[in-house]
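Bench notes, bay 3.
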Amino acid sequence: MRNNNKIMLYILALYALLGFGSRIALADNNLLSSSTKKTVLLAPLFVDRLVPLSVDRMEEKEDARLVPIVFKHGDISWLPKLAQEAGWPQKTWKRLGNIILRESGGCPNRRGGDIVDKNCNIIGHDGSNHRSDSGLLQINGVNYDTSRNKWALLCRELDICEQAPLLDAYTNLVAGKALWDAAGWGPWNPCAWGPEHRPKSCK
């Protein structure tokens, strides 16, 4: 009987190492002597201290990727990682960054005319009438609003048909990439706009 208990203990210890210890201990509770029961029920505690080391490291790595970006006006230190994830080629990042700084100051929640503080909090409006301009790249409503343009590229190709999704930094960069693929830097080049919007400084 003693040898049987030892064999059962070894089997249960093996199961415990595989993560099944607590369930087996409960299932076979009636087959074990009281001393063996105590040993087996402690096995998962022993395993918990040894096994999760690599799991913890994996979770820490995953958590690091999930840390939200803290956006501040004038700071685009986050851009390389986010631009890469959104599909922008590295050769475009410098110009992309300059456009973001010019258009929104790096504040993804900004709509046309919004005045922001250093932490990208909206604190006012400048009175202008271009509220459809959206997010980091100030993407204009003509690109997503089918009531203004029935061929709106972002609505047709990405199913982005309203402003709200474009106030997310990653979504805005993905949408911007679709516009860049279709028209290069034109959407952000005032001199490429129609005569009613083109600045006088353009030749």
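Next record in the batch:
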Amino acid sequence: MATGLERNLLGAPTEEHQRVEIYSGVARLSRTVWASEVRGAGTTPDVAVMLCHPTANFLGHYALAGLAERGFGAIGFTTRYVGNDTSLIMENCLLDMGAMVSYLYERGYAAVVLVGNSGGASIVPYYQAQARQPTVTDPPGGGPDLTAAALRAVDAIVMLNAHPSRATLSTEWLDPAILDEHQAFARDRSLDMYNPENGPPFSPEFVARYRAAQLARNRRITAWAHAQLGELGTPAHGPPGLGDLAFVVQGTAADLRFLDPSIDPSDREVGRTLWGPPQVANYMPAGISRVTTLRSWINQWSIDDTHADSIRWLPQIDVPVSVVLGTADVTVLPAMAQQMHDAATRAPVRDLRFVSGATHYFEGQPELLDQALDHIARFIAEHVRNP
């Protein structure tokens, strides 16, 4: 913690969970979501900047100190699913966000700005759209009625190194060379991005065939999940009252862009992911969308079913929108940032800022993090504090 800053632990009360979706009874029964508040010692900031993600632990987020030094209440928020998205339902994340947003206003903040960081873009525009005009009553896979949630709208939203949708990202990373969901290493060499006979570079014909096969695999898993969910609790499919079932998805780090810099060009380092070499990340247990449940797959990973897609909700956003991206991010690419910026057609102001050479976590790049945070601070000063 930088000198002159103070940290507070914030707990916002929530409603009782509808299902047992996290195994910790302590967490469920506390009916509380948590955030860390960092601010200048002895100060009372007027604007809270709340960093959001469906599952990441943001209590110690790298941007908190810098935002606090720029005069904000920097809020590192965690949902009930912190550290484990196996059973995650996106709409429950919105309820958790709503609890903390209301708490921040009650705490005395005049304005709240939501920052969707990385996968946080899946929930931030969705939250604001449902706060303004709630429409979702029966989420895919089952979940809360958002028309009864009374979510409180915020004053602006920011996307920081954020991709548009977890479902889209997962689909574009799914390995279409896997022939059998139960055989991790049985592969179709004609669809294997790690087979040097196919590239890189990858031909336009291969790219088109590969992307179509990825989409088809996502849809096959989704169809299977729907079918399994419909059979749960029948005599041959588990005990009565069983409402969900876990399963494993192998091969989830096979995006052609990991190996071919000509696809969606950027300053990224080719041949690596945030978790090391893509050939290893493709199978490592901590992979994206690796362990999930029937309901959660349908809700957050199904390309056709999920509601948590920023591109769906950004056209409804009527507050200022800023998109900030490091050009050397290996996961989020400039084309994704441009897509989100362009989708915010109703926002009274929208901007797009690229930080040249910055990586996903700004590791070892304090000067580039300063550039990103300076831009966010100016954006808030111009369009929230002094609109």
